Each structure stands twice: as C-alpha cells, then as structure tokens.
Task: structure prediction
Amino acid sequence: MQVTVLLSFAAATLVELLGLQWVSGQISILNTISLIMLTFLVGVVVGRSWGKEYFEKMQWSLKSRTPPEGGVVNGAVMAIASLLLMTPGIVTDSIGLLILIPFTRGPFLKFAASLARGKVSRGEMYYFFKS
Result:
C-alpha cells in the first residue's frame, strides 16, 4: 500500500508539473506564478471561513456513528477546496475552483456524503486518517 501511495503522489506531481509547464508556455512564467499566488490567497480565505471547524464536526458525526448533515458535508467539501487551491498546480486548482462554484459543487457533495455514509455503516471513526 505504501508503494501505491508513493507512486500516486509521484504521478500527481508529474502531472501538475507538466500542467504548469504548459500553462507557463501559454501565458508566461510571471503570469503563471501570479495565478498560483492568486489561487493560494483564495484558498487561504476560503480555508479561514470553512476550515477546521467543519472537519471537526465531520469527525464528531463519524465518532457518534450518525451520518453528517448537509451543512457539515458542504463545509468539509469547501475546506477540501481550500486545501486544493493552496496546493500549487493546474489540476488541483481546477478541481478547487469547480468545488467553489455552487452549480458544479453537487457531485463533490454527493461523493463526500456517500463516503461518510459508507464509513458510518462500516463503523469507521475517522474520515481521512486516524489522529
């Protein structure tokens, strides 16, 4: 499993680097760096609004073995969007921006809710990792 995770991170890093190289060829290196900084700042702002509180509520609902409510799932998904926006890269920023747009957030909410329901039904007490 550790090798799979390592290979996944290596492949994702390669894809992000190739994406950044392509974008910098299209709009220049300075504009690419500016775009990365802008998405980082948007991620920080979103994270301060939707961050740790909603992850803790999600953990609490899993530990109490109750499916999370809609607001909690929305907050957790928005917190994930902030993390994706703070990560430099084209793919992560694109996914983060898709989550921020209310019209395109639905599939992400459904995925997060089904993931949480599955963890509750299996009795798992942690959404991501054991702390």
Summary: The chain has a mean pLDDT of 84. Residues 43 and 82 are 4 Å apart (CA to CA). Helices lie at 2-27, 29-50, 52-63, 70-86, 90-100, 106-122.
